[in-house]
Amino acid sequence: MEVAPFARRPLQLARRRVDLVFIAFFLINVCFVTYVVDIEQLVIANPYHFVYPFWPPPAMVNMVHWWGRTFDPLLMARPVWWKMTIWMDALGFGPFYAVAIYAFIRGREWIRLPTIIWASVMMTNVAIIMSAEMGGPHATPHPAIVWAANLPWLLVPIAAIIRMARAEHPFSVAADVAALRRVGTAEEPEAAPLPAVQPAPAADPAH
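and the corresponding structure tokens:
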């Protein structure tokens, strides 16, 4: 059995429990935030005068509008730049979340660079949004609550960059090549040598 000199052994998800946090975060985003909360802000231009769309459901639309009226005037104002961040979420982040869920569960290391890119753009968006929430023309009257609601979208990307930047191979470890070779030898034993053929005894000339 041939073993590459730099073989790696994937780590099961049970040994990467920190990745469960990222998987849960991606699931919440793809199942609720991106394609329910954010989509509402794309299909309803004016939250004060609209017809309920096919999606999201009316209960979800009402929930988003309650949050905006109570805590987040910027969400209700929906300036052009705000909607651009929503389009980025729907067209870019949403597909990333779906792929990242699979990659983090299965330990696919090609997700490393896309994760760093996603996290960098997400932190940039959140920094811009929170600056408008705190000091823009539609600043929130409840800054502590809005900070608490948005903080995970700042902290999780920071944690993701740290997670991916600390190691080139975040989901695997160097394999024990010598052990792999021993296993390969045990699995593929060499063929036993054929027994030597004994020469026949010479005939007795007296007979």
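(Above: one complete record from the training split.) The mean pLDDT is 88.
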